[in-house]
Write a structure and sequence with these properties.
The complex is a heterodimer.
Chain A: H1 3-20, E1 37-38, H2 43-49, E2 54-55, E3 59-64, H3 70-82, E4 95-100, H4 107-112, E5 120-123, H5 128-140, E6 144-150, H6 152-155, H7 159-179, E7 182-187, H8 192-198, H9 203-208, E8 211-223, E9 226-239, E10 247-254, E11 258-262
Parallel strand pairs in A: 3-7, 3-8, 4-5, 4-6, 6-7
Antiparallel strand pairs in A: 1-2, 8-9, 9-10, 10-11
Helix pairs in contact in A: 5-7
Chain B: E1 3-7, H1 11-19, E2 28-31, E3 37-40, H2 42-46, H3 55-61, E4 66-69, H4 72-87, E5 93-97, E6 100-104, H5 112-130, E7 137-141, H6 144-153, E8 159-161, H7 167-171, H8 183-191, H9 197-201, H10 205-224, E9 242-250, H11 253-273, E10 276-287, E11 292-303, H12 306-319, E12 326-338, H13 356-367, E13 371-376, H14 384-387, E14 388-392
Parallel strand pairs in B: 2-4, 7-8
Antiparallel strand pairs in B: 1-6, 1-7, 2-3, 5-6, 9-12, 10-11, 10-12, 13-14
The chains are: A alpha/beta, B alpha+beta.
């Protein structure tokens, strides 16, 4: 851009700012890219994710078999999401919600993962369609920093709800971006023959998700003949900030509280 | 100064429901003389029905809404009884709006300890007069605005006394929508990210004056806690009547309307700067053949918005039968009152007061009892299922 055009642009911006306030228009060069993320609680995983955690204002998909640590990892993220940002002036605890379609949430385990129960809303919808409507309303309320959808297979038992969800996904993504809320979806791994038969059920979500991590249990951690926890592998399948295909190792120990141990 | 603000929430709705108990819990809207909605119940408000909507608009927003005309004379009687009860102790009382008034306690009490028994007694008397569903919420402070804010924060049947030293701490987190600023000003503040009184109070005074004028400057003083308006027991002095002569006489209603608002405009601007509005407007019409008609426009809440006033006056002029051509029009501002904030139509969520329980309550009305909160009952119990319980977040368990 030549000097005259640049001068004219600056003059126009100054005029608009004088009339409507300085925040109304800001040149992109002056905007600091703000990375809004929530830490997972595992340093190695945070480092691999590139931005220091899972993204706010977007969908994150965790898939894996039972006892692959996806639920525990999510609870740890919810705990971090409840903590007020260090830059925030107020020290108010943020609220989070769990859409418990599987009706299996255990408050005792949730509390042991460090989540403040006073700022946790648990929703048990009766149908899949109702769950999607409630999800939209929860995001629109702007009062929640993160929402967990537990889990995708339960939502997809109703084909009508599954189609409705796929149809609404782009709108949900826009809503999340506008409200700054993180949506975490848990998915069970399908058997290969089912994938061949019916196609991948989460393809639409994989397309919309900003981050997709597959978790696999690696080994049990034992100490003095007693089961102490387990170690899992987190495979990054899709990410907007880092190279896919990387693997992080996470260890989860059980004692009085559920402890996240950094292994490497 | 020592000011008590006494407010009966949803006064008009409460009276209508007291008369017809079957309307309790239903979305209810009262239609004023101008065929616009004058008051809405919390249930109707939740469905998006707002004051000044037409009946059709309200029905489109909420098909189940019960629409009934406002019984003006009955409400006026109850309002007089309400003010009379407050005035029984011989202290100056200023009517704010329906079911809301200020009492000047300067002569009898200056500290929270002294004020408490007086407030309790007044609260009991009003509850006895109006009945339990119309319990008052009381707020006390050294200024009118803070006292009003305190009564807005108090639940019905409770009082909130704010000591002078706690004023700033009390006002800072409250929503900006407590201020009776005009709608464009509140929207501008919303876009600028100013949500609380504390944020508004910290803005440079000159910038506020430049952008929002005298009304903004006055509102900022109130937000800081500096409100030196006295409690005025008499009806506020209205300006002299304005007389408009039509030469030659006119039969055009639009011409009469435009002339009225051309004459009223300076007065309305002056009232808006002082965050005041019209409560009672009288139009005396004298026709060429010698007859006269009187139009009384009484507003449920004080109004200074020209658009709204124009709609009401235009409606009244349209429905009036003109005996002949109009010769003289006399406009009198009979009653003036303080503007009432109307935040509910502007912000979907009142962030300062919002809580998880409130969100659950809103959603429960739509989806049913699907929202729970977990609680640890016995953390050391051997059985995991005995360590915690789920409790439903229903209407009765919500902290408002």
């Amino acid at each position: 851009m030549n000097h005259t055009k640049q001068k004219r642009l600056d003059f126009t911006i100054t005029g608009l700012q004088r009339r409507w306030g300085t925040r109304v228009i800001v040149p992109a060069r002056e905007v600091q890219p703000e990375q809004r993320v929530v830490s997972t609680g595992f340093l190695e995983l945070d480092r691999l994710l590139g931005s220091g955690g899972i993204p706010l204002s977007a969908i994150t998909l965790f898939s894996g078999q039972t006892t692959s640590s996806k639920l525990t990892l999510t609870y740890k993220i919810l705990r971090r999401a409840q903590q007020p940002a260090t830059t925030a002036r107020s020290s108010r605890v943020n609220s989070v919600a769990i859409l418990d379609l599987s009706a299996s949430s255990d408050p005792d385990y949730v509390a042991r993962c460090g989540i403040d129960l006073d700022h946790l809303l648990l929703v048990r919808p009766r149908t899949g369609k109702q769950a999607i409507d409630i999800l939209g309303d929860l995001i629109r309320s702007r009062q929640l920093s993160a929402i967990l959808l537990d889990s995708l297979p339960d939502l997809r038992t109703d084909p009508v709800a599954a189609r409705y969800f796929d149809h609404l996904l782009p709108q949900l993504c826009l809503l999340l971006k506008a409200t700054g809320c993180a949506l975490i979806i848990l998915d069970e791994l399908q058997a290969p023959w089912l994938q061949w038969l019916a196609g991948t059920r989460s393809s639409a979500i994989q397309h919309c998700a900003a981050l997709h991590v597959e978790l696999r249990r690696e080994r049990w951690i034992e100490s003095e003949g007693e089961l102490r926890g387990y170690q899992a592998e987190a495979h990054i399948l899709k990410s907007q900030r880092t190279r896919p295909g990387q693997v992080a190792h996470i260890a989860i120990e059980f004692n009085e509280t559920v402890h996240a141990r950094d292994t490497w | 100064m020592s000011v008590l603000s006494c407010r009966v929430p949803d006064f008009l709705i409460g009276l209508a429901q007291r008369q017809e108990p079957k309307w309790s819990g239903l979305p209810l809207a009262l239609l004023g003389a101008d065929e616009r909605i004058s008051a809405v119940s919390p249930e109707a408000r939740q469905s998006g029905v707002a004051v000044q909507m037409s009946a059709r608009q309200a029905q489109m927003r909420c098909p189940e809404v019960v629409l009934t005309p406002l019984n003006d004379s009955a409400c006026q009687t109850e309002q007089s009884a309400f003010v009379g009860t407050l005035a029984e102790c011989g202290l100056p009382v200023e009517v704010q709006t329906w079911g809301a008034a200020y009492v000047d306690l300067r002569e009898v009490a200056g500290t929270a300890r002294d004020v408490q028994p007086i407030c309790a007694e007044m609260g009991k008397q009003i509850r006895r007069l109006l009945g339990a569903p119309l319990s008052p919420a009381l707020g006390w402070d050294t200024g009118k605005f803070t006292a009003h804010a305190a009564s807005s924060c108090a639940r019905p049947g409770h009082m909130r006394l704010v000591e002078h030293s706690d004023e700033e701490r009390f006002l800072n987190p409250l929503s900006i929508t407590l201020l009776p600023l005009p709608e464009p000003a509140v929207l501008q503040l919303k876009w600028l990210g100013i949500r609380t009184l504390g944020q508004f109070a910290r803005l440079p005074t000159t910038a506020v004056w430049q952008r929002f004028g005298k009304a903004g400057k006055l509102a900022q003083r109130w937000a800081i806690g500096r409100d030196d308006r006295p409690v005025n027991p008499t009806v506020q002095a209205a300006p002299l009547p304005i007389s408009i002569d039509f030469d030659p006489p006119t039969a055009l209603r639009n011409q009469a309307l435009e002339a009225t608002f051309a004459a009223l405009h300076p007065e309305l601007s002056r009232l808006a700067d002082r965050l005041q509005g019209l409560r009672h407007l009288r139009l005396d019409l004298r026709f060429a053949e010698g007859s006269a008609r009187v139009i009384d426009c009484v507003f449920v809440e004080p109004v200074c918005d020209e658009k709204r006033l124009r709609a009401t006056v235009s409606h009244q002029l349209q429905i009036l039968e003109w005996a002949a051509e109009l010769e003289t029009l006399r406009v009198t501002l009979l009653e003036i009152g303080e503007l009432v904030p109307r935040q509910l139509t502007l912000f979907e969520i009142d962030e300062a007061r919002s809580s998880l329980g409130e969100l659950a309550r809103k959603l429960s009305n739509r989806y049913g009892e699907l929202f729970f909160q977990a609680r640890l009952t016995d953390e050391r119990h051997a059985l995991p299922e005995r360590r915690s319980i789920f409790s439903a977040l229903s209407v009765c368990s919500v902290n408002v």
